[in-house]
């Protein structure tokens, strides 16, 4: 191995030398600010090459694959990196982009079988792999070399050694790329064809979000002529989550992708000042009120997010459209008539492919042209244009009989006046009653956007090439159906975990609620069972919490990364001092990101205040937060989804805060699975029944 280290150092020095040399050359070329289009393009290309070189400089590559094609005389070492690097002087590819077809073998080849192959633009290329090597580089220095396969030896099956090395690293305040440790099942998702709706059901820590972001980088590389970054969108649950994942795409050399929430995107499209109840406040109300949320509130919310409500609005709008043109003829002046039948023919037949308001606009313009044509025959009889003025006055009066509404007004009108058809009658009555209060909620956004779409249509500039939806278990079928209208190619990556559906007033219970929205030949469903986040102790403990509620789902399967047992502590002394000493302990063990997870925002605020008074530097995370700053945080449990911390301290896990309910089992499961290395659970009085039956072999009851 010493010989390998020396040879790898020499190659690294060669690559680094070229990167620095070429970067200097490109940086020294003056920028072009003139009007010549060709020169502008050349300048942009130089800047892109310079950006790629700078991105690759600290860690030019992470793997090596020695591959011999069937028709070749010898094997060729292929170094795999985040970006491809071409030595333009020697006309030699010195680093292969991880997204290139040949690089797929680095992720798919396991060492079993005599041959390996990959799909190239010219067809399948087969050959023999002689070496598969992982190389950890930091700041242009080799840190670790692991051979996962060497042909002709029994050196096989140690891939996990490098994976465990990377998984054991502590985290900072951002999600990071995983190009050096992409697993085969993840690579299959990343390289899946673009024109399909791909749904990924993944356990906590399976890398759903990271895989989706790497899939975007792959698609933009593989389909450069068909996909544009600015026509791709990522929908995330909140702004803090977007901040948390914000570094991954730039690390992969991708910029320009839209990243937003469904509400922000939809309200921007509506272009109306619509007052929506704060969804953050909705979360607080849902999770923190003393009594249970009334069942009718949950039922109304679920109904408004359903496909049944979409069908109801479709039928209601169709009826509104059918009755829109008045039955009365238009008479500009005595003796001349434009029949209502003719106007309706224009509206329903000639302009039927236009959006509703575009049809109204075209009909109005056509009637005005008709008036001009008719008046031209009577001009001698009306030299002062009196008839024409009267005709225009009558047209304005005629148009006032057309029932035009804003999107918001139309929504209230249709829900308040349309006869019930496909909806549950008691629920429909409650919806009508809520409409009279004119108070809109988060679940009203998708219906509003549907009506906006029927009124205005979809502009080409509003269409997407690809849509990513994270935490999709909290998204309604109505929202998915709307998004499909804005992405007609049905190119979707949808990620979620039904065991983390903690917002029962929205979202879904089964993935079939989504699959029926898409063409079945463009739909694919993949489950990710392997969890790479937490130690096996944390995963085994967490699985016990929800094993009674899994149904057809498979529990998380840990990689063999062992750590401390969970500490289940009955609180006797001051909680503040106990937390302080526990934080000091996990910091001594190497933890950088630490979360104190509470049941409510009120409790989080109290803990934050008291620990700050003890001199601890700690961040309070609330629903309004837009940035995650790492370090030590105190956070309500319902805000932790999608996040991960080196160490987690869960407090107040007693029978009062966590009685035996499916929703609370999921909530507690979410909290426990945020921890990478260490999990402390504190309770006072009687332990939550959700934990009381967990085998005692999975935890200890003492502090360190």
From TrEMBL:
InterPro entries: DNA_helicase_UvrD-like_C, DNA_helicase_UvrD/REP, P-loop_NTPase, UvrD-like_ATP-bd, UvrD-like_helicase_C. SUPFAM superfamilies: P-loop containing nucleoside triphosphate hydrolases. One of its GO terms (biological process) is recombinational repair. The keyword Transmembrane helix does not apply. Residues 181-535 form the UvrD-like helicase ATP-binding domain. Keywords: ATP-binding, Helicase, Hydrolase, Isomerase, Nucleotide-binding. The keyword DNA-binding does not apply. It catalyses: Couples ATP hydrolysis with the unwinding of duplex DNA by translocating in the 3'-5' direction; ATP + H2O = ADP + phosphate + H(+). It comes from the Bacteria. Its EC number is 5.6.2.4. One of its GO terms (cellular component) is cytosol. GO terms for molecular function: 3'-5' DNA helicase activity; ATP binding; ATP hydrolysis activity; DNA binding. ATP binds at residues 202-209. PANTHER family: DNA HELICASE IV, UVRD / RECB / PCRA DNA HELICASE FAMILY MEMBER. This is DNA 3'-5' helicase. It comes from Hazenella coriacea.
């Amino acid at each position: 191995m010493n010989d390998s280290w020396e040879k790898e150092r020499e190659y690294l020095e060669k690559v680094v030398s070229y990167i620095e040399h070429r970067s200097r050359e490109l940086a020294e070329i003056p920028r072009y600010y003139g009007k010549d289009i060709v020169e502008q393009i050349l300048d942009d290309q130089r800047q892109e090459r310079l950006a790629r070189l700078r991105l690759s400089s600290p860690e030019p590559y992470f793997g090596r694959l020695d591959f011999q094609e069937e028709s070749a005389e010898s094997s060729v070492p292929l170094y795999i990196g985040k970006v491809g690097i071409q030595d333009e002087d020697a006309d030699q590819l010195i680093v292969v982009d991880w997204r290139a077809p040949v690089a797929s073998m680095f992720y798919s080849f396991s060492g079993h079988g005599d041959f390996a192959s990959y799909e190239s633009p010219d067809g399948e290329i087969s050959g023999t792999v002689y070496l598969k090597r992982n190389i950890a580089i930091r700041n242009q220095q080799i840190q670790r070399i692991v051979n996962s396969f060497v042909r002709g030896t029994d050196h096989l099956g140690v891939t996990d050694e490098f994976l465990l090395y990377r998984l054991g690293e502590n985290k900072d305040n951002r999600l990071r790329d995983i190009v050096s440790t992409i697993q085969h099942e993840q690579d299959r998702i990343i390289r899946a064809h673009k024109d399909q709706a791909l749904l990924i059901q993944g356990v906590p820590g399976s890398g759903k979000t990271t895989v989706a972001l790497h899939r975007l980088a792959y698609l933009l590389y593989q389909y450069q002529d068909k996909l544009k970054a600015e026509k791709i969108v990522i929908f995330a649950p909140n702004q803090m989550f977007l901040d948390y994942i914000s570094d991954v795409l730039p690390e992969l050399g991708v910029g320009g992708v839209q990243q937003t929430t469904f509400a922000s995107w939809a309200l921007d499209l509506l272009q109306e000042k619509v007052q929506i109840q704060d969804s953050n406040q909705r979360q607080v109300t849902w999770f923190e009120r003393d009594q249970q949320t009334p069942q009718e509130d949950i039922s109304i919310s679920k109904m408004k997010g359903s496909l049944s409500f979409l069908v109801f609005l479709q039928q209601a709008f169709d009826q509104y459209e059918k009755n829109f043109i008045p039955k009365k003829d238009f008479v500009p002046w005595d003796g001349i008539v434009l029949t209502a039948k003719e106007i309706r023919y224009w509206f329903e037949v000639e302009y039927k492919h236009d959006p509703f308001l575009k049809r109204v606009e075209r009909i109005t313009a056509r009637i005005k042209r008709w008036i001009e044509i008719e008046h031209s025959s009577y001009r001698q009889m009306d030299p002062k244009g009196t008839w024409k003025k009267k005709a225009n006055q009558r047209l304005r009066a005629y148009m006032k009989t057309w029932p035009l509404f804003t999107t918001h007004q139309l929504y209230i009108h249709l829900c308040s006046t349309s006869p019930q058809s496909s909806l549950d009658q008691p629920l429909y009555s409650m919806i009508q009653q809520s409409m009279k209060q004119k108070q809109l909620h988060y679940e009203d956004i998708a219906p509003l956007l549907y009506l906006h779409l029927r009124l205005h249509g979809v502009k080409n500039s509003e269409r997407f090439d690809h849509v990513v939806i994270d935490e999709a278990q909290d998204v309604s079928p109505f929202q998915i159906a709307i998004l499909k209208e804005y992405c007609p190619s049905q190119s979707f990556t949808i990620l979620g975990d039904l065991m983390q559906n903690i917002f029962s007033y929205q979202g879904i219970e089964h993935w079939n609620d989504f699959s029926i929205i898409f063409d079945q030949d463009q739909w694919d469903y993949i489950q990710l069972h392997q969890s790479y986040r937490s130690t096996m102790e944390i995963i085994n403990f967490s699985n016990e919490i929800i094993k009674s509620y899994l149904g057809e789902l498979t529990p998380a399967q840990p990689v063999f990364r062992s750590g401390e047992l969970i500490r289940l502590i009955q609180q006797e002394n001051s909680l503040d001092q106990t937390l302080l000493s526990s934080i000091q302990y996990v910091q001594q063990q190497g933890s950088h990101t630490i979360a104190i997870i509470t049941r409510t925002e009120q409790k989080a605020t109290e803990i934050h205040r008291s620990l700050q008074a003890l001199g601890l530097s700690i961040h309070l995370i609330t629903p309004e937060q837009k940035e995650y700053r790492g370090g030590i945080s105190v956070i309500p449990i319902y805000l932790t989804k999608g996040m991960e911390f080196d160490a987690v301290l869960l407090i107040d896990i007693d029978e009062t805060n966590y009685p035996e309910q499916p929703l609370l089992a999921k909530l507690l499961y979410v909290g426990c699975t945020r921890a990478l290395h260490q999990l402390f659970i504190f309770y006072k009085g009687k332990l939550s029944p959700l934990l009381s039956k967990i085998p005692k072999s999975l935890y200890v009851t003492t502090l360190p």
